[in-house]
Design brief:
The complex is a heterodimer of chains A (115) and B (111).
Chain A lengths: L3 E4 L2 E5 L4 E7 L6 E7 L6 E7 L4 E4 L2 E6 L4 E6 L8 E8 L9 E3 L3 E6 L1
Parallel strand pairs in A: 2-11
Antiparallel strand pairs in A: 1-3, 3-8, 4-5, 4-9, 6-7, 7-8, 9-10, 9-11
Chain B lengths: L4 E3 L2 E4 L5 E6 L6 E7 L6 E7 L2 E5 L6 E5 L5 E5 L8 E8 L6 E2 L3 E5 L1
Parallel strand pairs in B: 2-11
Antiparallel strand pairs in B: 1-3, 3-8, 4-5, 4-9, 5-6, 7-8, 9-10, 9-11
The chains are: A mainly beta (115), B mainly beta (111).
Chain lengths: 115, 111
């Protein structure tokens, strides 16, 4: 089955700097890659996602890139703000159901943005 | 338009007891998945229901079972609770492989 590795496990940046979180996946048949932000005691919230037919997607300060050949995808947050502090999870769809709801998650990255 | 709703939000059970958690999917969504999130870990897939049947299952023992009703709502049942079952249980709903939405979760503590 699918396996997702996420790095780093913790990341500390100064306000205004950029943050990059990287994930690798094992199953080349995976075709959907969402990123979730989870604040303490709350549910994971989708912040951006990308499908395997696209190499990059951007939404304001957040962007995701996908390299299907290397089987890795990355989250980029620019101009970080203290409210970006949270745990971020990457995930990959587990074939054969594609994006039908069976996601394999990474172990998470705790991002701290210092004012 | 209500999102994914779960109940109860918090509960405490004793080892060996049984628990039932409930989920109502986002309006119009027909697929419900359940995840277990232990403290400090990412969510782990338990199983998924579609058209009232279990379509896919993760690596969880038979103590974990579920059900989906004709209105697409779902229940997660856990029998013979162990201390290690203490976690946040998340329900997620989706439609036709589009965006997956998570509920607020049910915090289960087993003592």
């Amino acid at each position: 089955g699918e396996n997702v590795e996420q790095h780093p496990s913790t990341l500390s940046v100064q306000e205004g700097d950029s943050a990059v979180i990287k994930c690798t996946y094992s199953d080349s048949a995976s075709n959907y890659f969402p990123w979730y932000k989870q604040e303490l005691g709350k549910r994971p919230q989708l912040i951006i996602d990308i499908r395997s037919n696209v190499g990059e997607k951007k939404d304001q300060r957040i962007a995701v890139t996908l390299n299907k050949t290397a089987k890795h995808f990355s989250l980029h947050i620019t101009e970080t703000q203290p409210e970006d502090s949270a745990v971020y999870f990457c995930a990959a769809s587990d074939p054969p159901w594609g994006s039908q709801g069976n996601l394999i998650f990474g172990k998470g990255t705790k991002l701290s943005v210092k004012p | 338009d209500a999102g994914v709703t779960q109940s109860p939000t918090h509960l405490i059970k004793t080892r060996g007891q049984q628990v039932t958690l409930r989920c109502s999917p986002k309006s119009g969504h027909d697929t419900v998945s359940w995840y277990q999130q232990a403290l400090g870990q990412g969510p782990q897939f338990i199983f998924q229901y579609y058209e009232e049947e279990e379509r896919q299952r993760g690596n969880f023992p038979d103590r974990f079972s579920g059900h989906q009703f004709p209105n697409y709502s779902s229940e997660l049942n856990v029998n013979a609770l162990l201390l290690g079952d203490s976690a946040l249980y998340l329900c997620a709903s989706s439609l036709d492989g589009n965006t997956i939405y998570f509920g607020e979760g049910s915090w289960l503590t087993v003592v």
